[in-house]
């Protein structure tokens, strides 16, 4: 698309001076353009104007295509960011629990309980499962 835009700009830069030249020739009272050749010059001038208008419409079409492409890329990136955010949200509570129990404290009452280790593993499974269910209920996944 960028190559097409460059080519359109290149062609437009070549044709616009021709329009200016033809405008100046048609408006001047020069002997270069006689009664016989005047209609031909006007015809050429009309063709140049049409080519410039066509180039402008092609440029607008290419700009529209570029905007559609960038919008599609942006939407895809938003979807990826949403999934990454959901996974990060699921693992933040687990990271918190691992951080708490990874500290070297002498006195943590739950370390002496019989069921503390299985309850901790149960939490490790329930928290992500609950968050996944909640995300699916809200249609984020």
Query: What percent strand?
Result: under 5%
Low-pLDDT residue spans:
none
Sum up the overall morphology in one term. Answer: rod-shaped
Helix content: over 70%
Question: How would you explain this protein's 3D organization?
Answer:
This protein has 141 residues and is an all-alpha fold. The protein has one domain: Up-down Bundle (Methane Monooxygenase Hydroxylase, Chain G, domain 1), CATH 1.20.58.340. Helix content is 79%, strand content 0%. The radius of gyration is 35 Å and the shape is rod-shaped. The model has no long low-confidence stretch (mean pLDDT 89).
Question: How would you summarize this macromolecular structure in one to three sentences?
Answer:
This protein is an all-alpha fold. Helices cover 79% and strands 0% of the residues.
Helices and strands in order:
Blueprint: H1 2-27, H2 38-101, H3 116-137
Helix pairs in contact: 1-2, 2-3
Could you name the key traits of this structure?
mainly alpha, 141 residues, Methane Monooxygenase Hydroxylase, Chain G, domain 1, 0% strand, single chain
């Amino acid at each position: 698309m960028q190559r097409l835009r460059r080519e359109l700009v290149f062609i437009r830069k070549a044709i616009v001076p021709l329009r200016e030249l033809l405008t100046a020739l048609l408006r001047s009272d020069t002997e270069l353009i006689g009664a016989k050749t005047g209609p031909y010059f006007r015809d050429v001038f009309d063709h140049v104007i049409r080519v410039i208008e066509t180039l402008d419409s092609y440029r607008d079409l290419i700009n529209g295509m570029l905007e559609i492409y960038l919008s599609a890329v942006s939407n895809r990136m938003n979807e990826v960011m949403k999934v990454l955010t959901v996974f990060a949200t699921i693992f933040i509570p687990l990271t918190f629990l691992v951080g708490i129990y990874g500290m070297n404290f002498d006195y943590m009452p739950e370390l002496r309980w019989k069921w503390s280790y299985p309850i901790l593993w149960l939490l490790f499974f329930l928290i992500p499962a609950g968050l996944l269910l909640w995300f699916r209920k809200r249609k984020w996944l």
